[in-house]
Write a structure and sequence with these properties.
Layout lengths: L4 E5 L4 H12 L3 E6 L2 H13 L3 E6 L5 H15 L4 E4 L15 H29 L2 E6 L12 H21 L4 E8 L12 H9 L9 H12 L10 E4 L7
Parallel strand pairs: 1-2, 1-4, 2-3, 4-5, 5-6, 6-7
């Protein structure tokens, strides 16, 4: 990844943090983006302390103007944009559809789906100027199946798969590859609110017998962002410990 510039949203913790650190370890200049300023700066500082190149840019991914500003920052700071990892997301409200609040629905769609459109709208033109680029969007296993109580999350993550495939069809001939990753339940801060019994139940859904790690997902994202996956576009990659094979 030498001489390449990478944006990672939601990089303050979890999968985003592991991804930003891995790209930097491979030589990329990384723009660490998150709405959480202190944690985002901590990720940046950890990369720099290890000899990597990184800068933090605070971004609310649900705001199109801020997503445009993020891309502009990356290009102004490092001269180009080669890879974008649209990872930021929230779990959101857990309720059956009839009980879900309008506000809860709208927030999840804004953060988990609208942000992908805003990101690619500005990332793709920047990559076209280079003549190439790779975008990795974050969906979920719940972009492939349903999950009771998570209608907004499932709808958004299914939508991520659809917009990814469409973007791949539209821009692959111009050497912009767009792929989507679908993790199962990963042991990240998103699960911190769960008690031990709920976590045990989640583990039982994975035939491999454990939750995934952020670092495992980061390795897949790195491959998709690199030239080693040069013939891969429009693809949905579950990384799920056998969840979808049940």
């Amino acid at each position: 990844m030498e001489k390449k510039t990478v944006i990672v949203t939601g990089a303050a913790s979890g999968i985003g943090k592991a991804t930003a650190e891995l790209f930097a370890k491979q030589g990329a200049s990384v723009v660490v983006s998150d709405i959480l300023e202190d944690e985002g700066n901590a990720t940046t500082e950890s990369i720099v302390a290890r000899g990597g190149r990184a800068s933090f840019f605070k971004t609310d991914v649900a705001n199109p103007e801020e997503m445009e500003a993020l891309v502009n920052f990356a290009v102004e700071k490092y001269g180009r944009l080669d890879v974008a990892v649209n990872n930021a997301g929230i779990g959101g409200e857990l309720n059956p559809i009839a009980d879900m609040s309008i506000e809860g629905w709208q927030k999840v769609i804004a953060v988990n789906l609208n942000s992908l459109f805003y990101g690619m709208k500005y990332q793709i033109p920047a990559m076209l100027k280079n003549g190439s680029g790779s975008i990795v969007n974050m969906s979920s296993i719940l972009g492939n199946v349903g999950f009771a109580g998570s209608a907004a999350y499932c709808a958004a993550k299914h939508g991520v798969v659809g917009i990814t495939q469409t973007a791949a069809l539209e821009y692959s001939a111009q050497n912009i590859r767009v792929n989507v990753v679908g993790p199962a339940f990963i042991d990240t801060p998103l699960l911190n609110a769960l008690d031990a019994e709920m976590k045990r139940q989640l583990v039982s859904l994975h035939p491999i017998g454990r939750l995934g790690s952020s670092e495992e997902v980061a390795e897949l994202i790195l491959w998709l962002g690199s030239d080693k996956s040069s013939f891969v576009t429009g693809s949905y990659y579950p990384i799920d410990g056998g969840y979808l094979a049940r």
